[in-house]
């Protein structure tokens, strides 16, 4: 593994961009907007370059950069990507410029601060996906809370303060437990390894040798932290509040990327570090995931607020991802990763579209709409595509992920029961119900409210934001191999690592 | 005792001598040049710098001063003492800077001489608390610190709250030092010695009545617990911290707490620990179970401190409770009874100094403008005073223990010591406490950044000097959060204590 700075550029560009932003004069909002967008686009280009350099056939971590950071504790700055993190890095760098651009109209005060926090947030998110040292990972994981707290708290809706505090406390409670588990694991590993280390690749070797009972505790500490972030039923209660109160850009980043950090954590840390415990708890987590799928869908069905509906649909969609991860087959694992990306795209698009219309009418109540198909045809078509993608219509992206997850969970040796698949599949039907019902009430029927007649259709810039997302929605749906190829070897490696330590547990 | 030996002992207490000389000089200068007493802060600052130089010299020295026979030294000089003395000196330097920049202290300017004399008196007392190895000397130094701080707490004479604080402090202090003295006399009665080094052997040999001994130790702990504001000896803390002038509050919360901790650590380690194993875990005499005792006290201290802070509406009072909670975290490090735990305490203290002084400094600078310490009056200050707002945010995040600030490193080392000793449950309790603390720390952020600003909120006008003082604390808090090797190295080299 040769050292390369490429992965580090991914972090350096937005970080220095954000620091540079501090020196912009107060009244230069336009310059700040262009500069923020430019920085995030450069970051996207860096990630594309990373993608071109990436060797898809290898399951190893590539493009690593490593140097000693804290000698006392043998902590190093260690970053690198494998297929799974590569895809999530691309998702992050792809969504950030789009969301930044989408706020040009809606964020009118404290633009500089907002752009600053968004760029810092991007550093944190990318850092989480590329860290290969637990200490480094933890720093990024925690450092992200502060910008998100301010984004929800300063630019959010009416109950923004309540939502931001709830978000902060919920996530910190979980992550501190993880901190203790990280220290515990590193202290435990210092005996067989001879040194204290937080290097993930070293700990991969030691984790499976931890005795079952201790491993269970460590697994639960990690998993709790990730499950809060996902959020897994019944830890999801912070999500609707945060989503509804956050500004559109915050919601898009929250749903698009932040939630993925929870599921990413599960498959990057929980499974390979604690394989026996993972198999032990796989049924429990799968049950919670399936409950989440159905619960989220049912609650989404009765929402009267569009944003809340999309928020609860996230609980349902992320349930699929968790099920895919704990089914522990290569298919389901790949499905889970693809589904993470899908959810980022389709939910991101839905939040953007809800945001667009909210800016015009200042209401998100479904009952305040109706019959807008004739008034805003382009918007209605866009909403249709996003909804169908979220439902999982064959030919669009959602179908690929859900199909692979259901297939994998059906074949799963670890779960060893088709009951999970049956119940999870019903979630797909529910999704069609709440999405299409919402679509019908908003778009079709009589125009009930006169002021809707003056509604303006999507502007060119709004279309420019949504089109790139739609391209990928169709691309993944029609030709998923581009993306599945990327994740295949990495997913296989994780599944192999888990199952190799646990043949006796299965039988 | 030969004269040579006496001189040699004097050589070992150079910092204390320097402090005493400057104390006397300040009195004389104030007496004869009372018209020029605005120069006194500079003079006190200079005195502290010189003292600091002698303290830093002591990092390499090990020695016992004023030894009467074999091992009965009154004063111990070692790198552990040097570390805590450095903390006291640095805090005192900031104390001078805080005082000069506080509008609150303007009215007391005609009494500058007394103020800095008292400060020097406190420094002297704290030095002996840190270095002393005889219970009588320790008691006297605790009294010296207490008496000076009673007056300091009430220094703003015209403020009712300040006088009230002083009186409360005095009453609690008199009671607990009485208890401590009673405890010391019981220990003397049981062992016929007041020397920490001798106690180590005598406590086991004397086969003292264990109940009486335990009672005596509890009484001594009452005296120390009062200094470090450990539950249940903390009742004075919120009132005194709120009422006293803010620089004094900051000083009490760091310096006198540091001295108290140094005393407690030395008392336990020298008198009760007789061996340590290769991993650095101490074996202590079974006469008193310090570990369980400290665990109970630390859990009670941090839990009470954090939960009580939740309801506070006055920022100073909130920080008072938060400092009680931090004493609780620090006690967990001692409860481990190991070298790792001790390193964690030293690391934590070095960081606690920066972030706590920093937080109080911001409170002072904000009060200079708004004239208030009430949380409601902080609304929107983050935007009208961006520099102070951002600095305060960094200090508060550090106090919570979140990366990438130094406070996280302090917590990290404490957790590592606890996990190393397999005290996972205590670690989990400490982390749940951190979550509670997050709530009240971000309440301040909430008021500063998320609440609607008040009309005609004052503008931020800071002198260059004030900006530099703030930066001198903000930069290390960030820097040591990202690169903490220097602090850890210093702490590792400073755990050497004479005795076991």
What structural class do the secondary elements of chain A suggest?
A: mainly alpha
The major sheet of chain B is characterized as: 2 strands, antiparallel
Would you report the number of β strands of chain A? 2
Spans of chain A with pLDDT under 50 lasting ≥5 residues?
none
Strand content of chain A: under 5%
Number of helices of chain B: 20
**Main sheet specs of chain A:** 2 strands, antiparallel
Number of helices of chain A: 20
> Could you tell me the number of beta strands of chain B?
4
Oligomer: heterodimer
SSE order of chain A, as H and E? HHEEHHHHHHHHHHHHHHHHHH
State the share of residues found in helices of chain A, binned by percent. over 70%
Class by helix and strand content of chain B? mainly alpha
Q: Strand order, main sheet of chain A: write it out.
A: 1-2
How would you portray this structure in words?
The complex is a heterodimer of chains A (507) and B (500). Chain A has a domain of 234 residues. Chain A is built from 20 helices and two strands. With 507 residues, chain A is mainly α. In chain A, strands 1-2 form a two-stranded antiparallel sheet. Chain B has a domain of 212 residues. By secondary structure, chain B is mainly alpha-helical. Chain B is globular. Chain B has a two-stranded antiparallel ribbon with strand order 1-2. Chain B has a two-stranded antiparallel ribbon with strand order 3-4. In chain B, helix 4 runs antiparallel to helix 5 and helix 16 packs parallel to helix 19.
């Amino acid at each position: 593994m040769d050292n390369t700075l490429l992965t580090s550029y991914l972090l350096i560009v937005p970080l220095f961009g954000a620091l540079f932003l501090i020196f912009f004069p107060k009244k230069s909002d336009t310059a700040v907007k262009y500069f923020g967008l430019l920085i995030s686009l450069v970051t996207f280009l860096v990630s594309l370059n990373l993608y071109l350099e990436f060797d898809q056939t290898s399951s190893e971590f590539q493009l690593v950069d490593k140097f000693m950071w804290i000698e006392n504790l043998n902590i190093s700055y260690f970053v690198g990507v494998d297929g799974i993190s590569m895809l999530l890095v691309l998702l992050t760098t792809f969504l950030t410029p789009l969301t930044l651009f989408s706020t040009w109209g809606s964020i009118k005060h404290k633009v500089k601060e907002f752009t600053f926090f968004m760029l810092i947030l991007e550093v944190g998110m990318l850092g989480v996906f590329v860290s290969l040292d637990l200490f480094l990972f933890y720093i990024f994981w925690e450092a992200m809370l502060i910008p998100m707290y301010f984004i929800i708290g300063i630019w959010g809706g009416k109950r923004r303060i309540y939502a931001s505090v709830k978000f902060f406390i919920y996530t910190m409670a979980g992550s501190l437990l993880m901190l203790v588990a990280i220290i515990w694991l590193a202290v435990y590993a210092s005996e067989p390894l001879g040194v204290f280390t937080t290097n993930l690749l070293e700990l991969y070797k030691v984790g499976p040798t931890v005795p079952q009972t201790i491993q269970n505790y460590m697994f639960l500490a990690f998993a709790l932290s990730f499950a809060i972030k996902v959020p897994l039923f019944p830890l999801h209660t912070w999500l609707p509040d945060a989503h509804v109160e956050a500004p559109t850009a915050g919601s898009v980043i929250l749903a698009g990327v932040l939630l993925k950090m929870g599921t990413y954590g599960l498959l990057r840390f929980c499974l390979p570090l604690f394989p026996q415990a993972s198999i032990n708890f796989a049924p429990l987590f799968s049950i919670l995931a399936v409950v989440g799928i159905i619960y989220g869908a049912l609650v989404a069905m009765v929402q009267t607020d569009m944003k809340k509906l999309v928020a609860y649909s996230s609980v349902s969609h992320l349930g699929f991802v968790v099920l895919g991860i704990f089914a522990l087959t290569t298919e389901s694992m790949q499905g889970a990763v693809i589904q993470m990306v899908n959810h980022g795209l389709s939910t991101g698009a839905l939040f953007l579209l809800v945001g667009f219309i909210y800016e015009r009418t200042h209401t998100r109540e479904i009952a305040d709409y109706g019959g807008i198909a004739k008034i805003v045809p382009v918007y209605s078509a866009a909403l249709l595509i996003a909804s169908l993608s979220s439902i999982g219509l064959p030919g669009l992206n959602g179908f690929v992920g859900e199909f692979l997850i259901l297939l994998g969970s059906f074949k799963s040796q670890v779960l060893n029961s088709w009951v999970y698949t049956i119940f999870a599949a019903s979630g797909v039907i529910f999704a069609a119900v709440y999405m299409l019902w919402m679509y019908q009430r908003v778009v079709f029927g009589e125009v009930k409210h006169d002021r809707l007649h003056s509604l303006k259709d999507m502007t060119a810039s709004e279309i420019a934001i949504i089109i790139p997302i739609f391209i990928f929605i169709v691309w993944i749906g029609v030709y998923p191999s581009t993306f599945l190829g990327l994740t295949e070897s990495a997913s296989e490696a994780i599944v192999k690592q888990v199952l190799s330590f646990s043949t006796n547990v299965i039988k | 005792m030969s004269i040579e030996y006496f001189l040699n002992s004097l050589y070992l207490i150079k910092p204390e001598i320097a402090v005493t000389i400057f104390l006397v000089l300040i009195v004389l200068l104030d007496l004869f040049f009372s018209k020029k007493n605005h120069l006194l802060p500079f003079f006190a600052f200079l005195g502290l710098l010189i003292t600091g130089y002698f303290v830093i010299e002591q990092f390499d020295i090990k020695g016992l001063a004023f030894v009467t026979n074999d091992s009965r030294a009154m004063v111990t000089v070692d790198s552990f003492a040097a570390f805590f003395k450095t903390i006291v000196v640095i805090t005192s330097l900031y104390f001078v800077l805080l005082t000069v920049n506080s509008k609150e202290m303007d009215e007391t300017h005609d009494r500058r001489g007394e103020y800095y004399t008292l400060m020097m008196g406190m420094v002297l007392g704290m030095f002996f608390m840190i270095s002393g190895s005889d219970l009588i000397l320790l008691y006297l130094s605790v009294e010296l610190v207490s008496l000076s701080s009673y007056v300091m707490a009430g220094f703003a004479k015209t403020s009712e709250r300040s006088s009230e604080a002083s009186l409360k402090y005095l009453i609690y202090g008199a009671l607990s030092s009485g208890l401590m003295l009673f405890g010391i006399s019981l220990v003397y009665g049981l062992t016929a010695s007041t020397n920490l080094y001798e106690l180590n052997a005598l406590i086991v040999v004397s086969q003292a009545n264990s109940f009486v001994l335990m009672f005596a130790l509890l009484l001594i702990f009452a005296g120390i617990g009062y200094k470090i504001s450990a539950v249940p000896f903390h009742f004075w803390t919120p009132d005194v911290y709120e009422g006293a002038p803010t620089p004094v509050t900051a000083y009490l919360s760091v310096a006198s707490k540091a001295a108290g901790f140094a005393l407690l650590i030395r008392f336990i380690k020298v008198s009760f620990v007789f061996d340590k194993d290769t991993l650095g875990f101490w074996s202590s005499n079974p006469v008193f179970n310090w570990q369980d005792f400290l665990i109970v006290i630390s859990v009670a201290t941090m839990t009470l401190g954090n939960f009580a802070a939740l309801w506070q509406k006055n920022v100073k009072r909130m920080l008072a409770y938060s400092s009680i909670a931090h004493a609780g975290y620090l006690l967990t490090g001692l409860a481990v009874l190991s070298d790792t735990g001790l390193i964690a305490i030293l690391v934590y203290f070095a960081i606690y100094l920066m972030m706590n002084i920093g937080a109080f400094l911001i409170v002072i600078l904000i009060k200079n403008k708004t004239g208030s310490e009430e949380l409601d009056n902080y609304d929107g200050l983050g935007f009208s005073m961006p520099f102070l707002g951002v600095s305060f945010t960094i200090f508060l995040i550090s106090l919570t223990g979140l990366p990438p600030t130094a406070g996280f490193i302090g917590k990290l080392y404490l957790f590592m010591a606890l996990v190393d000793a397999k005290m996972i449950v205590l670690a989990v309790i400490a982390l749940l406490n951190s979550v509670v603390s997050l709530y009240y720390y971000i309440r301040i952020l909430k008021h500063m950044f998320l609440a609607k600003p008040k009309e005609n909120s004052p503008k931020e006008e800071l002198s260059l000097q004030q900006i530099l003082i703030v930066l001198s604390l903000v930069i290390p808090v960030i820097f040591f959060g990202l690169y903490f090797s220097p602090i850890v190295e210093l702490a590792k080299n400073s755990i050497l204590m004479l005795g076991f």
